[in-house]
Amino acid sequence: MRIARLLSGLVLSLACSAVLALEILPYSAQAVAAARDADEPYALQFHSEWCATCKEQTRVFKLLAEESGLDMKLFIVDFDHDRNTVRAYKVPVSAVVIVFRGKVERARLFAVSDRDKLREGLKKAF
Asked: Which of 34, 40, 105, 122 is deepest in the core (most CB within 10 A)?
């Protein structure tokens, strides 16, 4: 009986941490509009395949997705091919992360790949 309770507690804590984790998704105008209109926290990462900083950001975001406390979506924008979105957000270079809460921009990070600084930037959406 005690083991069953322990296991159910473990399963519940894992489920809760997954629910409260950073979700990494490809950019979709419809998904971003839904997050914006629902006043949810979300971020955009402007990523290029050739960009070393972008690759490091991606590695760090995957680590952050394993942590609890960042219940938000991170949309990955293809900097090289989605020029309309790049222009719409006035992003001059790749490796830019823009953090939002609904319609309000809360942070804009340029070439930041430090785990603590990225976490801090994402938390500005809350």
From this structure: 122
